[in-house]
Amino acid sequence: MNPPGSLAGLDPNLDAHLSTQILAPSVHSDNPQERIQARRLRIAARLEARRREALGEYLDGKKESEEDQSKSYKQKEESRLKLAKLLLCGTELVTNIQVAIDIREIHRRVEEEEIKRQRIEKLENEVKTSQDKFDEITSKWEEGKQKRIPQELWEMLNTQQLHCAGLLEDKNKLISELQQELKTKDDQYVKDLKKQSDDICLLLERMEEQVKNVMKTFREELYNIEKAFEVERQELLASNKKKWERALQAHNAKELEYLTNHMKKVEDYEKQLNRQRIWDCEEYNTIKIKLEQDVQILEQQLQQRKAIYQLNQEKLEYNLQVLKKRDEESTVIKSQQKRKINRLHDILNNLRSKYAKQIKQFQEENQSLTLDYKRLVLQFKELQKAMRHFALIDDEKFREIWLMNEEEAKDLIARAFDVDRIIHTHHLGLPWTAPDFWFLKNVGPISQQPQKSATQIVEEMLMHTEEEEAEEAASEPESYLDLPKQISEKTTKKILMLLCDESGFLIESKLLSLLLPLEQNECYLLRLDAIFSALGIESEDDLYKLVNFFLKYRAHRLSSSLQIKSCSQASMEKASMEETSMGSELELAEQTEMEGAKEESLVEGEKEEEEETPPSPWDIHPNDVLKILEAFVMGLKKPRDSRAPPRVQKNMRNNSKDSEYWQALATVIPSSKQNLWDALYTALEKYHIVLTQRAKLLLENSSLEQQNTELQALLQQYLNSKINSELQVPPTQVLRVPTK
Amino acid sequence: MQDTVTTSALLDPSHSSVSTQDKSSTGGHTSSTGPQPSKPSITPVSAKSRNPHPGANFHRMRRIIAEDPEWSLAIVPLLTELCIQHIIKNFQNNPILKQMLPEHQQKVLNHLSPDLPLAVTANLIDNENYWLRCCMQRWPVCHVAHHGGSWKRMFFERHLENLLKHFIPGTTDPAVILDLLPLCRNYVRRVHVDQFLPPVQLPAQLRPGDQSDSGSEGEMEEPTVDHYQLGDLVAGLSHLEELDLVYDVKDCGMNFEWNLFLFTYRDCHSLAAAIKACHTLKIFKLTRSKVDDDKARIIIRSLLDHPVLEELDLSHNLIGDRGARGAAKLLSHSRLRVLNLANNQVRAPGAQSLAHALAHNTNLISLNLRLNCIEDEGGQALAHALQTNKCLTTLHLGGNELSEPTATLLSQVLAINTTLTSINLSCNHIGLDGGKQLLEGMSDNKTLLEFDLRLSDVAQESEYLIGQALHANREAARQRALNPSHFMSTITANGPENSVG
Predict the structure, then answer these.
(1) Beta strand segments in B237-316, E
(2) ipTM of the complex model
(3) Cβ contacts (< 8 Å) between B401 and chain A: which residues?
(4) B107-123: per-residue pLDDT in tens?
(5) Do A13 and B398 touch (CB under 8 A)?
(6) What pTM value is reported for the model?
(7) So where are chain A's domains?
């Protein structure tokens, strides 16, 4: 029914049907309908144009945003708008007819209603009048019944008939009128029908027109859109082609470049290859030559080897032969040897028997010899006794002589020292210090201090402490104080005590039981004796070595373990506190010794203290004692073996220092001092001369003074005279009085 | 083996003879060598009989041609072809279709005659092509779009329509239609009949000679004018969705009689019962059938609380205010979406009742009251209703004697309402002022797409401006439809331009 519907329809027949009728309406057409159609279309187009103008702004606004859109899009949009307008106008055009018919119908209805109303009115009027007339007639019928006269009745009947006829006529008239109306209505109906058919025709025409139009415009727009697309496509194609060409050109250029590069590279590589090939060839040749040479050498060597091999083979064969022969020979020798062994066995047996005989003989000899030896020993002992006696006597003599001489020398030296002192103090005015030489103090013959045995020293030591306790004279100390050079007596003692306490295992158990009742010191002594004998310590040196060893070990340990020092010191203090209980007596002894030994030289005391403090024997842990002892014994073993022989010479007098001693005594006043004395002597002589001169001058001076006093007295005399006051210028004023 | 044998035979017969001789002399002890010498002569025959697909074995075919150049496969029709021909020929007696391969089915369907009895084809053939041929054969103009794009459906619907059109109660055998029913029940969705023939009057006309006029007329008319009763048919069609009926007679020519155009009470009752029973009906149209208030009410009563009915078209009838009131009641008791009461006799009270129903309705989207006479009172009532209604999109009030007051109210509605897309006020007496007011109302509206004001005494200027506003709205709607996400921005962008226009 509606064009879009029919267009949308897929019916091919209908489409074909419509397409045949496509013809644009023209203003100059013969058909008036078509002319109207054309005009209407024109008006619609104008309206559309005006509308579009009015909407221009709106569309412009849209277009601005769509400018970036493609041409085809614009075309599409344009076409769409145009088509929408066309459809709208077309449907309006088509529906216009319907609307027109509607309004005509409405008008008709209104008219119809009016006419109907009039008709009904008329009918009603008619009904009324006719009713009146009918009533009149019916009333007349009543009247007529009363009439007896036929004429009257006839008249009346006639009139009634007339009335009825009138009534009928009216009715008929009305009917005819209505029929007339009906007829006109029929005519009208027919007309309407015609008109409606016309309208329908028009409607159809318009619809067809619309369809044609729409199709045409759709085609056109489609064509336009296609054209736009085509154009766009062409443009796109052109641009793409350009791009493609550009890309292709670029690609070609690149390809060319690559090709040239490639060619260059190929050439390069070819050159390189050639070079490489040549080089390879050369190398190959050299290698080949070298290898061939090698091969030759190797072949030569092979030949040599082969020769050597054959030679060796021959040699070995020869050797084999030789060895076989030797084997044979050795078997022969073996048998010979066996025979020899048997022979030697016989000899051995003979010799054994001989040996036994000899032993017997020698035993006898030995017995005789031992007897001889015993006799000789007795003789020797006697001789020794005599010798010792003489030695003592010699010593005594020697000593006496020595002492005598020494006394003489010392007197001389004392005189010399006195003179020197006088010279120094009186003549030179210098303080004199008595020269302190070792030999000055020496009394008796110089000798190595007799080597005391260790036990002796210990005894001395112990005794010494006791002596000090008893505050006996300090003459003795010097004898042993000079001996321990670095080690104080106390440390030694302490070390020994420690040793004694720790190495009880060295003492025999019997001895221990014996020691129990003894005094402490003695007990110690005996114990130490036993220990020393066990350790092999015999001399004083050994003892000091031991003590030194202890101290060194101690020092070594200290240096090795400095980090423990602080704590060890702290522990030392504690240990000392602990050990005071053990060695409290010793400490007390020490203290008393300190008090009593004030007479001793300060230097020594200081030394003692200095030495005592750093290597304190208390630092040695009792547990270490055994280790130290072990080490000491190991160290001591070697020297001890060689110590035995010189023991014989022990008592031999050492003369080496005697001359020196006497020389020293002779040159107690050094030559420089003698020179000084000479110089002093000459200077004193000179001084004596000067003094004598001066004595003379003093005498002169005293005489001159006498003269002077005399003169002064004279002068005074003159001055006190009266003349002086009479003088205009007194001489006192001229002379400054020297009295002032 | 065969190839070598044959080629060697062709090239060098002497050698082949030797070989065959050899084989024959030695032959017999193996089965394969035995038949070989004689095979070349046999193969053509066996190929002819055995090979339905010559393309399948290309080598064999080539070899055969080489041997017998005169022979051609085209001469001999394929067995399948023959079978198909046979099936086509005897399809009426022995319809074989489903058992065949698809390509063969296609072939059969392409060659089936469209004149086959429906009893055979109706439930067997679903192919559209066949039904297309059937339709094209019967009717020169076919609008398949009106039948849901299905040719089969179209065929059955139009077939049924033809039968109904030419059914004459009393003379035609009702079995004609009832026989068709089981065949078409699954395919017919729409029944469109624009003519119901009354019973033949001839016997009635013949009879007056025998019987008295007055008595016969009084008795005879009532049963005779009734038309075909749709009850059975409607009940039988399980997929019926649309019923489009016109109780009319076409091409009566000089036989015109008023009796021909009667929609009797019996018709009405039976129709009402039929549509009440049909729960699949969506569209019901009863036009140009002289339905007056009472009949309309009977039909509408039957439609109350119908589960699926969406469209009711009672245009070109004689429905007055009472019928309109009934329709208003129907509005609030159904899911009606489209109501068409065009060209009836609804006046102000009817329109008011409709407006009352419309005020709170949420289903109706289209209301057509063209060519009624609701006048300003009714128009105002409808306008008031539209102020609260949020559903109606299309309203046709053409030719209703409306004037300025209605236009004033409608302009207010236009400013508020956002659902209306189409209003038709043509053929009214809106007047110049009314037009201006409507223009004002239009200036605030963004949704209206169509507004017909032709022949309603509106100034051309305002009509033109309204047209521009509508155009702007249409553009906006198009934009919205194209890209729903941006419609807000487009509206704001178009806002100032619209106000300027």
Answers:
(1) 242-245, 283-286, 311-313
(2) 0.73
(3) 106
(4) 888 888 888 888 888 88
(5) no
(6) 0.51
(7) 71-279, 333-428, 448-462+486-560+618-636, 671-723
